[in-house]
TrEMBL record:
CDD domains: cupin_XRE_C, HTH_XRE. Transmembrane segments: none annotated. The keyword DNA-binding applies. This is HTH cro/C1-type domain-containing protein. It comes from the Bacteria.
Length: 200
């Protein structure tokens, strides 16, 4: 039977959804400051398969997406970009990575991802390692203080202060206090563009 325009559109839409999965997976991983090795260890999926998924060279399926949704603590709909249901709420599912708690405040794949980070006290925190990846990040310290390392320079950022930086620069965050955690509100854009806010 020949493909009708409706069928053709359905095929096109399906391919478009599947084609968007790779970037969504990459964005979810980077927003949580995880490496491919981190995800491979937690999901049981090989690094090469994860790399092909993110690059669009491997077709996603449920056997791959379900464990990744569990690792990233997001709904499967967020990874595949399912149409919105009309509920504007973001169902928060905190995740932990290297001692830091991440609380996603946006759905996966958003142009700018927002999340809250809780950085543990220095006495129990693992030593932070410098990481770099594409994108741009904004931080606002809610409570406590953090040490933000960019390259070889470290800056103390206290509650009520903000910082922004290009994430292609090697960077690391840690609580500045030995016995107190720090809470940070963060915005992350994979596009690498600075945020422009119009003043009224």
């Amino acid at each position: 039977m020949p493909i009708t325009p409706t069928d053709d559109q359905l095929v096109h839409d399906t391919e478009a959804v599947l084609g968007s999965v790779g970037p969504r997976l990459r964005d979810a991983r980077r927003a949580r400051r995880m490496t491919l090795a981190d995800v491979a260890e937690r999901s049981g999926i090989s690094i090469s398969t994860l790399s092909r998924l993110e690059g669009g060279r491997r077709r996603p399926n449920l056997d791959l997406l379900l464990p990744l949704a569990h690792v990233y603590q997001v709904a499967l709909d967020d990874l595949v970009g399912a149409p919105p249901t009309g509920d504007p709420r973001v169902h928060v599912r905190p995740i932990r990575n290297n001692g830091t708690t991440f609380v996603p405040l946006t759905r996966g794949g958003a142009p700018v991802e927002a999340f809250k980070m809780v950085l543990p006290p220095l006495r129990i925190a693992p030593k932070p390692s410098l990481r770099r990846h594409g994108g741009y990040e904004w931080l606002y310290v809610l409570t406590g203080a953090i040490d933000l390392t960019l390259g070889t320079a470290t800056t103390r950022v206290s509650a009520g202060e903000a910082a922004e930086f290009d994430t292609r620069i090697p960077h690391a965050l840690s609580s500045a206090a030995h016995d107190a955690a720090a809470e940070v509100l963060a915005l992350f854009s994979t596009s690498g563009e600075r945020l422009h806010v119009r003043q009224c």
